[in-house]
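Lab notebook, bench 4. Still working through the backlog of constructs that have no structural model yet. Next entry is a single chain of 388 residues. Request: give me the structure tokens for it.
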Amino acid sequence: MNILTKIQKRVSDRPAELAKLRHQGKTVVGWSGYNLPEELIYALGLVPVRIGAGGNEKLVELGQRYVSSHNCVYIRELLGYIAENKDPLIQQIDAYAFDATCLQTFRAAELVEYYFNKDVFILGVPRNFYWTEAQDYFVKETEYFVSLLEAKYGVKLEDQKLKEAISLYNKIREKILELYTIQIESAEVSWMDVYGIIQAGYTLDKAEYLDLLEQAVEEAKGYAKEEDSDAPRIFLSGSILPPGDSKLINIITKLGGRIVGDDLWSGILPYLDLDIKEATAGGVALGYLNRTPHGALPYLELESDRRIKKLKELLRLSRANGVVYHTLRYCDPYSFKSLETKHILVDEGIQFLEIHTEYASSDTEAIHTRIEAFLEMIENNVLTKEVV
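Model written out:
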């Protein structure tokens, strides 16, 4: 897509723009999590920037100076990323905001505050989203989170500003879903392109980002739909795939697989089914809590698990032939859920492969071999069905 060059240029320019905003008195808040309502930070007049990186062994090693090597590799690299403080984007962060959806993220928040002398704000998240008490708790936690930011930076959450922020973010979600849907039908718009555009949005000014998304959608609409292709259609699930962690993606595409969908919390999932019914901090909180829950949260009743329901829905939408379920080392919640997810999908005739990895090159050949065999199995199954 031609728009990608423009978007990448704007992302590279963003740190210098943030430096100018800080010089003008703006506060840049780096945030991480799944249930942290970014639009509240935006509506307060602060500048939200989502942080996170993957695939860098050096940063993982640096992060292990601050947290046990038995913590997930994403958290280890996140701490190394902040500790190194060489990335132009990280250098512009004034404060950090984390949610406690994943307990390892919560641990990272504590360590950032302790070791790096930064203002850190933590949003508590209940373990069970379905209880009335849990919803009341999250509303109060969100209101308290907002009050901390207001007190610290002398800002106020105004009704009109919040309505404008909700409207802007809703339009962004609509365009991302539209772009995501287009790539399912058109091979000229790849999943990797859409995934990169999603990641860019965490850095760019939100109003500008919406404009770029609209341009991307208009360009994508001009491409022809895909003709029949023999490429296995792959759906990605499991642990986060942050910017820089492209090993698995590159192997799948190099071997001829076509990624057509995901339910990653670094991908499309956060943009789905978010319905904010009331323009208040509590209303935003309930909107976030009532969408598809994050896989890090415990849930034992598989028949009514909204995560599984959404996964099946996205698989039907993308017409995927197989699921590559990616788990990071020591990302226990997703690792524990892999077997139950496999049983559910295999029972419905969907091929399933779990890849367990971390940010190192040593397992590249092993992953290559397993992906190659998985793609061959899918191709053989497709051919068998056609013959029958």
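Notes after review: The longest strand covers residues 322-328. The chain has 14 helices and eight strands. Flag for follow-up if needed.
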